[in-house]
Design a protein that fits this description.
Helix content: 10-25%
Strand order of the largest sheet: 9-14-11-12-13-10
Number of helices: 5
Structural class: alpha+beta
Order of helices and strands: HEHHEEEEEEEEEEEEEHH
Strand content: 25-35%
Largest sheet: 6 strands, antiparallel
Shape: globular
Number of strands: 14
Distance between the termini: 30 Å
């Protein structure tokens, strides 16, 4: 349970809001940890934030044809590399985690730690670092406040040279598939929370990952490729908000435009703006 001190910090801000500005937390600057280096991703996302077919459609890049298989395969590999590069850039610049991943953040000892990949999902481990050696600290002593800006609080600064926090972060919703599918694309989920805004979002299963093509009802989604699953299998949808998804598309386009990597059919004027304009104050 959070201590009275931690509760006083949380209650001072609008802590129930997912997208609250950082300044809503009344944290004295002297009590906020300094960051040491860049966050380290220790477990990679299982699927890319964008599908190559969605990028092709958005940028008006032609689909594969039988007599262009080799060249288009090379293009698909280029598309995947550019998607991953753009994702890393957007995540670094806006301190985001789009698809669920595990991250290590290193700080100076303090009572308040602002995590650099948000939204944080859960704490995995907290360690004190002294003379290069790591000591695992009691996880229950630390309180995670998640959201668009995610914080970790503790009553007293650990007496070490540095503090390393390992946590999971990203946009994710766990659902359950109803019925079984064998090489099928129409998946029925035991939920009524599906929204058309999830079209194009990545998802994963125990044995495969992919992207949502379309949503035909509140419970049925169409996968981007045929897959197999059993009744009551767990499926994770990475429900990335529309703003960073559109910004990611724009950023990939900018990278293509500057490097001339792939000929795209969509003109600059057809894009909604640069990725920074799209992100705004997100």
């Amino acid at each position: 349970m959070p201590s009275p001190y931690v509760n006083s910090i949380l209650n001072a801000g609008r802590s129930g809001q997912i997208f609250q500005p950082i300044v809503d937390f009344k944290v004295p600057a002297r009590e906020v940890a300094e960051r040491l280096g860049e966050p380290l991703r220790t477990v990679e996302p299982v699927v890319d934030a964008l599908a190559t077919w969605e990028l092709r459609s958005y940028l008006d890049i032609g689909e594969r044809t039988s007599d262009e298989t080799a060249r288009e395969y090379d293009d698909d590999r280029t598309l995947r590399r550019m998607i991953r590069s753009a994702t890393e850039r957007l995540e670094r610049e806006y301190e985001l985690a789009l698809v669920e991943q595990t991250v290590e953040d290193l700080f100076t000892p303090a009572v308040c730690y602002r995590l650099r990949r948000c939204p944080a999902l859960a704490l995995v481990k907290v360690e004190g670092i002294e003379d290069g050696a790591a000591t695992t600290l009691t996880l229950s002593d630390f309180t995670l406040q998640t959201g668009r800006s995610s914080w970790v609080f503790v009553d007293a600064a650990p007496a070490y040279d540095a503090v390393r926090i390992t946590y999971t972060a990203g946009y994710t919703t766990a659902v359950v598939a109803s019925g079984a599918g064998t090489d099928a694309v129409a998946m029925t989920l035991t939920t009524t929370a599906l929204s058309p805004s999830l079209e194009g979002c990545p998802l994963s299963h125990a044995s495969w990952s992919g992207h949502i093509d379309t949503i035909t009802s509140t419970t049925v989604l169409v996968l981007s490729a045929a897959q197999t699953w059993a009744d009551a299998d767990a499926v994770t949808i990475y429900d990335i908000p529309q703003t960073p998804r559109m910004a990611l598309l724009a950023l990939v386009y900018e990278m293509f435009f500057l490097k001339g990597t792939v000929a795209v059919g969509r003109s600059v004027s057809a894009l909604p703006g640069s990725y920074r304009e799209i992100m705004g104050d997100f």
